[in-house]
Amino acid sequence: MKDIKRLQEERRQLFEDLFDGKIPKRVPISANLPLEFCIEYARLPLAETQWTLKGVEKAFEKACQMTSSDMYPLGFARFPAHLQILGSKAFVMGSNGFIQHPEVIGMAVDEYDEFIKNPYDCIVEKILPRLYPELNTNPVTRSLVMAKAFKAFYDYIEEYGKIDARLIEKYGFHRVPVESFSVVTAPFDFVADFLRSFKGIAMDVKRCPEKIVEACEAMLPIQIKRGIPPVPSKFGHTFVPLHMGTYLRNKDFEKLYWPTFGKMIHALAEAGQPCLIFCEHDWMRYLDYLYELPENTRLYFEFGDPKLVKEKLGKKHILSGFYPLTYLQTATKQQCIDKAKELIDILAPGGKYYFEFDKSPVTLDSVNVENYAAVLQYVAENSKYDNPGGSARSENKLENKATKTEIPEFKSKYYKSWEDYRKGHPEINPKLESVIAQKLQSYEEMLFMMMFMLM
Fold it and tell me: Counting Cβ atoms within 10 Å, is residue 1 exposed (0-12), middle (13-18) or buried (19+)?
């Protein structure tokens, strides 16, 4: 037990040094293993296991025994029960047991103005009932359906949380501080993914770009609220997967995508919450834009030139990614290890780097597990720094952002702050107000969180 606690403390120190601008003892490792991979790795039935969770802890444990990740490797998962209860069209479990996001349209092109007026009201009243048809019914039935879905959603969260806690302590993994993690998307990506679809947004870019700009601006208060967790921390992060930026022409990216995305990342940083941004696909066209993000933003790259990225961004931001997951399937073990060495030689000097593959292995057949484990073991044993504790390389002329990012306050008739609730309930005993406020507000936030886990 003492050895496990010592290992956990060493792993914590690796990441805290990294985020504190120090050279860690060695390159930290964060390698995520999705739920589906773990279930297949344990040879369990994929669909049934996601529903019942029978055997899922043993599946996770087997994955924990295989990996040399310093960060707890098991993270985000979608749950089937509440999606089924709601009749989900946005996330659908296929016959193979994988829950996928098909092309959906939640909003017609002539509804932009209504959405811009108040996005949350529009989402609750129109978009969710379209994407989740069991809500598209009479008020009583809708209320009962949402109550069942809410219970199912948080039952799974509670069970997974217990499993995670046990395995983190048993194997000495590091994890971000409690309640210091969140997930959000760029405003443009939200509009594309769930409102207009890939095809629809591509048409809108040409026929009504100004409406997209207004919709993205209108979404900013919601996205920033989503992105700030209960306890912001420089050792936590908000995960931001980027989807549509690389499909846009440069001039459309500059006008439609970047302004609200940049504002969002700056606003979160000003709230004390750094972002971990997954630069999906090839973001090499946009390195100058990424440079302008707040210092020590964590940039996780799928494709691109690691040498150029290190040269242009490596003194200001924290980098990861680039290791091609497909290599683990096609190359020999030694070739896989040599690839890891190549990337460490490029990206590790001067600090501001942690090891991660370019994507997570969703299916068991997407990697050779022996190669996967060998690469992580190599990094853990062969990426030590000569000057741990020293200052990580940084720009000498970093400019502090002088003005605070101005974002309108989030307001909706379907979201009540405690102040709003208190005005309508003068009967509440003032002596109990602080206790009642905390409890009731927590349920408001839980419902808000669930709403956006549906999108």
Answer: exposed
